[in-house]
Fold:
Amino acid sequence: MNVITLDNTLPRVFAGREAIPSDVWQCPLSLHRGTVYLVTAESGSGKSSLCAYLYGYRKDYSGTIAFDGRNIDSLSVGEWCEVRRRHIAYLPQEMRLFPELTAWENVQLKNRLTGYKTDSELRGLFERLGIADRMNSLAGKLSIGQQQRVALIRTVCQPCDFFLLDEPVSHLDEVNNGIVAQIISDEAIKSGAAVIATSVGNNLNIKVGEVLKL
Structure:
């Protein structure tokens, strides 16, 4: 997948509201593989909705979203599975870890589907992020910041053309923000992927190619 396009896209809940200047909503927009995008937003402006639309979780919008020119409304269930396994790596704001599984088991659930990382590589990521000692702890017993780092490791357990990251460092300090940014940057460079990161204040500390105001 090389380009995601939005044309006159708008959450239906926003219909009829006074128009607010935006680089995304109700605009022609092209998101290209290999570029780093920072989507800045205020709470309630639809950043999580945007991510859900691009990942196919929600369809409550007007306008068009297309992958390489194909309207995503036409994708079958099987095609969406392939998109999520091979083309878009998504880190949702709520992280969606299984609290009854350990941090390691949560990561392995994804990695077993893709076979993308070796166990040694995964352990190295846990060590880089300072949570190697929590690998065998239940996810539900981890702090929010620790959970966010586990979710980040899970996100990079697949090949992709686009990293879709919804507030990926909202619960992290400056040091861990920098580590996460470097991991994402390294993975994006390796695969030639784009990065689409949203933020309401705590920005991912990564070199940005284009800033978009939601």
Summary: The helical segments are 47-54, 77-87, 103-114, 119-128, 144-155, 174-191. The first strand starts at residue 3 and ends at 11.
